[in-house]
């Protein structure tokens, strides 16, 4: 028997009885606090990372925590964002990248994607980072280049989120907050993008800044993202 099936047996016999009331309640409907968009990488577990329960997070996962920009065909990502914002009325959207991301490694070295045409096509939604990869990125020490690319991709994909019509409308109405996070596989810590410092900082420091800047958040995200991404 595989570990996965054994895991389910353990859930059914040991965990489910403890959470039975919650599970039953959720059968009547969900009201998640946040939409969490992250990479498919097996080393990152959104519920473990945020200590959340079933019903708390609406989750999108794919290679590279990518969100196609609006204007193209409907995708699973854009449809799920629309549903989360318009129907479920989530209050927060997180885009969470992570260090040592294989998708971002592939974006940096397209020659490594030989034989993976669908991955290469998917990564075209991060192609705006190409000028950074070939310019400033190429001049960075190799060990820092991928980590910085992960940060920039997280911001780019959050910008794609912001451009979705439903998100734009909710931001104007002050009903939504956007967050860019990077999870460090090395030590399990998270850094969050801070609009005031214009950089990734410890998540608790970013939150503190955010409380003061909340009123102007929609405008701040807009202008800071523009600065960051316009390389
Ligand atoms: Zn990844």
Structure description:
The longest helix has 22 residues, at 142-163. Helices cover 49% and strands 15% of the residues. It folds into two domains: 1-28, no CATH class; 31-229, Carbonic anhydrase (Beta-carbonic Anhydrase, Chain A, 3-Layer(aba) Sandwich), CATH 3.40.1050.10. It contains twelve helices and six strands. By secondary structure, the protein is an alpha/beta fold. It binds zinc ion. Zinc ion (ZN) is lined by residues 39, 41, 64, 98, 101-103.
In short:
This protein has helices at residues 3-15, 20-26, 46-50, 76-87, 102-108, 117-122, 130-134, 136-139, 142-163, 165-172, 203-213, 217-229; strands at residues 34-39, 57-62, 92-98, 177-183, 190-194, 199-202. It is α/β, with parallel strands linked by helices and 231 residues long.
Summarize the SSE layout with pairings.
Elements: H1 3-15, H2 20-26, E1 34-39, H3 46-50, E2 57-62, H4 76-87, E3 92-98, H5 102-108, H6 117-122, H7 130-134, H8 136-139, H9 142-163, H10 165-172, E4 177-183, E5 190-194, E6 199-202, H11 203-213, H12 217-229
Helix pairs in contact: 4-10, 9-12
The protein binds zinc ion (ZN).
Residues 39, 41, 64, 98, 101-103 line the site of zinc ion (ZN).
């Amino acid at each position: 028997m595989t570990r996965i099936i054994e895991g389910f047996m353990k859930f059914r016999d040991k965990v489910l009885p403890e959470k039975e009331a919650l599970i039953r309640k959720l059968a009547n409907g969900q009201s998640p606090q946040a939409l969490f968009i992250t990479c498919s990488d097996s080393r990152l577990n959104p519920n473990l990372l945020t200590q959340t329960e079933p019903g708390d997070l609406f989750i999108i996962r794919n290679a590279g925590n990518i969100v196609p920009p609006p204007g193209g065909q409907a995708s699973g990502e854009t449809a799920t964002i629309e549903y989360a914002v318009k129907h479920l009325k989530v209050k927060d959207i997180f885009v969470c990248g992570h260090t040592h991301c294989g998708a971002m490694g592939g974006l940096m070295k397209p020659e490594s994607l030989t034989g993976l045409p669908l991955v290469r096509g998917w990564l075209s939604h991060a192609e705006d980072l190409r000028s950074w990869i070939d310019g400033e990125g190429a001049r960075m020490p190799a060990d820092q280049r991928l980590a910085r690319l992960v940060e920039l991709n997280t911001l780019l994909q959050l910008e794609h989120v912001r451009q979705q019509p439903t998100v734009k409308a909710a931001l104007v109405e002050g009903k939504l907050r956007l967050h860019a996070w990077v999870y460090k596989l090395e030590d399990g810590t998270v850094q969050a993008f801070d609009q005031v410092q214009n950089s990734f900082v410890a998540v608790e420091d970013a939150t503190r800044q955010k409380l003061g800047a909340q009123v102007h958040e929609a405008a701040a995200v807009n202008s800071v993202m523009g600065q960051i991404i316009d390389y």
